[in-house]
Amino acid sequence: MSGLFIKLDVEYTDDPKILRAGPHAELVFIRALALAKRLLSDGNIDTAHLPRLTLGIPGRPAVHAAALVREGLWTVTDTGWHITAWEKRGNMTAAEVGELVARKREAGAKGNHQRHHVANGRTDPTCRYCLAEASQDASENGRTSLANASQTPRQSQSQSQSQSQREEPSSDIGSGIAPVDNPTTVDNVIDAIVDHLAKTNRPRNPAAWRRRVRLEQHAAHADAAARLIEQFPGAPITTLAARLIGEPAPNLANYRKATP
């Protein structure tokens, strides 16, 4: 079913115009109301539809159409007829019906998102609401990270150079990201970013938040992470993660891949 309906006064059968047009023309008129609403034609009936409107009704189709025109129920147009009182019956225009259908569809999609995704702590990469929430969370996380980074005292150039000379894989504390002892892969670097961002946020649903943020961070940094791993194969995961999100990080020069 389309979910569309026509407005029909319960006393329409007593309308003198309907009575004079006759019962056969009356049925054509009712069918035309439904057709115009279904096609969203703003009350217009094309001549090509007349055989379908009169199917199974005794008499010639042209005679029934002429009776409706004679009584003022239909008005002749260049392409067929117009249901004369269409607008007065409170029928919405095609544009208005389209807006109503779009609002209902949007409300239904949002309800499904709340019921199946938010309530279950699940993120669907094909759901525009999940992606929008992930983008918003990532934006907020980025602002928080930048604010925290701006409060971190900057070392002088000589101190940074001195530290880079003494740097060992375990000296990742300067980045603000806790060291991890896992193989250096893109997924592990992304996980390190999410772990760090989780420290500066208090999501209402931690599991759903992590899934959303990981999806966003993977989309934003996966390619860059792969390039850093290739260029600096011995660098700690947390150092690479810090570089990707703009956090203070130790110098990567000591980990650069040797040139053949």
Write the layout of secondary structure elements.
Elements: H1 16-21, H2 23-39, E1 44-46, H3 50-53, H4 61-70, E2 74-76, E3 80-83, H5 94-118, H6 128-150, H7 157-166, H8 186-199, H9 206-231, H10 237-244
Antiparallel strand pairs: 1-3, 2-3
Oligomer: single chain
Query: Major β-sheet, in short?
Result: 3 strands, antiparallel
Average of the residue pLDDT scores? 78
Query: What is the overall number of helices?
Result: 10
Q: State which percent range the strand residues make up.
A: under 5%
Q: Please report the total strand number as a whole number.
A: 3
Overall SS class: mainly alpha
> How many domain regions?
2
Computed CA radius of gyration, to the nearest angstrom: 34 Å
Low-confidence residue ranges: 152-176
Write down the overall geometry.
Answer: rod-shaped
- What distance separates the N and C termini? 71 Å
Helix content: 55-70%
Order of SSEs, N→C? HHEHHEEHHHHHH
Strand order within the widest sheet?
1-3-2
Please explain how this structure is put together.
The structure is a single chain. The termini are far apart. This protein has 2 domains: about 70 residues, no CATH class; about 130 residues, no CATH class. About 10% of the residues have low confidence. It has a 3-stranded antiparallel sheet. Strand 2 and strand 3 form a beta hairpin. The radius of gyration is 34 Å and the shape is rod-shaped. The chain contains 10 helices and 3 strands. Helix 2 packs across helix 4 and helix 8 crosses helix 9. The chain has about 260 residues and is mainly α.
